[in-house]
Amino acid sequence: MKQQQLLTMLELQNDMNTKVHAQWQTQNFEWYRAIWVECAELLDHWGWKWWKKQNPDIGQIALELVDIWHFGLSIMLLKGDSPESIAEQVTEAFATPQETGDFRIDLEDFTEYTLASKGFDAVRFAKLMQGIDMDFEQLYVGYVGKNVLNFFRQDHGYQDGSYQKQWGGKEDNEHLVDIVAQLDTSASDFKDQLYARMLATYKALCA
After folding, report:
1. What is the pLDDT of residue 1?
2. What are phi and psi of 129, to 5 degrees?
3. What is the mean pLDDT of the chain?
């Protein structure tokens, strides 16, 4: 099932990138730069200041990892391998056993690799996930949910300001969480079910 979920994410990422620019593959977007900036934000959520007490915000760290995953998928798609081949490579990388130590050191190692190679290392990324006990299913649901919500906003007037972020007194991202909880996230058409359910809810509450 992981293979199918990876293919779904790769398809979604290509679709989102194409929505931003039809020829996104030839634009030389600095995906690596987006990753290291997200890494800095992630470190803030973990805490690095030795002069004050800081507790890691695991929820926010997980969200930052989902954001990084968007850019990592984009880099992997640019290599020209088939989605099936990429999915196999990622599956193997995620299955590689890792010894986690200081999360901040692991994050700096991942960031250093990103800056030096301008690429994305799935093994190092999986190590960061392991460092906060984030499993593949959480990554998948978080990723698909955010992508579908982004598409939905764009399709319903986000750019021209006509989109209503409050649906019946509750924000769209809260509705997203509620709807995801009602669906089978392992279904091959999970993203389509999610979009359809969001559309029905939006029409019922915002018509």
Report:
1. 56
2. -60, -45
3. 91
